[in-house]
Amino acid sequence: MRERVRSFGLVAPSIAQAAVGSGLAWLVATQVLGHTRPFFAPIAVLISVGIGLGQRLRRVAELVVGVGLGVGVGDLLVTWIGSGAWQIALVVALAMVTAVLLDSGALFVAQVASSAVLVVAVLPGDHAGGFDRMLDAFTGGLIGLAAVALMPASPLTLAAKHASGVLDALSTALEQAAEAIEKRDADLAAEALEEARGTQVAVEEFEQALETSKEIIMISPMHWHRRARLARYETAAEPVDHALRNVRVLARRTLAALGEMHPPPRALADAMREVSEAALLLQLELAAGREPVLARQALIAVANRERPEQLGFSAAVILAQLRSIVVDLLRATGAGHEEADTALPPVDDPSPG
């Protein structure tokens, strides 16, 4: 229930935008434009605002063009063949073929087809012209964008929530792998691998949340001053994705290593925990709007630790993956490629220097 309440808090602004915008779009279309049944005006608001993640500017463009094309095909055919089951089938087929030839976007194709169906099936007696309906859609789209700009969701809250999910998953997988090494427990290692394999969805949601957050900041002047804070999340997104990919390899190799004659030393578990804690530090500093200096220092400290000696093959692979994760997370803190790479001592030199 707590998770549902938190999720509602994220979509509540979009619900308000959709509700207020729909009513306002109907009012403008009826009272200002003089249209008697401006069906497409509130629908345009709903599509342009939505309650999820998406590209609103592209949505509005596809909506307006899609409505115009669908209405045009529907109006043209209904005057020739009337309305009915086979007429709807024919109109949908022709409208979708035309849409696919012009643009393969799913929303565009669906909008063209649904608009044509509305003209043939729902509004066959409506004498409003295609231009009026297109104007309704355009009006609703603009009002939807205005609602997003004037009643915006918090782009940083959106980015922070999904970034926390990704970094939490990374930290948890490393903790589980470390515990598996300490206890010599293959079942725990299997759980760590399963945890790591399930992280890609969180990464994709984070990337989508970033796109939406950037869009909100671009549309809404109220959030322009937060561009620098959002830029830190943008910097972290790709390196954190790479770090999670390396965590998956590390977890798989940990499971394999525990079945070997010489399991990985417990010193590797300590290093994993330090990297796990650094990932949580990164999460906290990003959420606080600070340059992630503490996380960077923690990662450099791990990088400069003395490497365990006489490692078996799997343990050596685990160490190599852990080094890669450190480099990825250093880049996520804002360090450049060269700075992150040089933070690690050479592989053939076990000394901390």
UniProtKB/TrEMBL annotation:
Q: Does the keyword Aminoacyl-tRNA synthetase apply?
A: no
Listed A to Z, the keywords are: Membrane, Transmembrane, Transmembrane helix
Task: Decide whether keyword Membrane is in the record.
Answer: yes
Q: How does it sit in the membrane?
A: Multi-pass membrane protein
Q: Which GO terms describe its cellular component?
A: membrane
Where does the record say this protein resides? Membrane
Q: Where is the Integral membrane bound transporter domain?
A: 25-146
- Which regions span the lipid bilayer? 7-29, 35-53, 60-78, 107-125, 137-158
Please report the name of this protein according to its UniProt entry: Integral membrane bound transporter domain-containing protein
Q: Which organism is it from?
A: Nonomuraea glycinis
Q: What are the leading ranks of the lineage?
A: Bacteria, Bacillati, Actinomycetota, Actinomycetes, Streptosporangiales
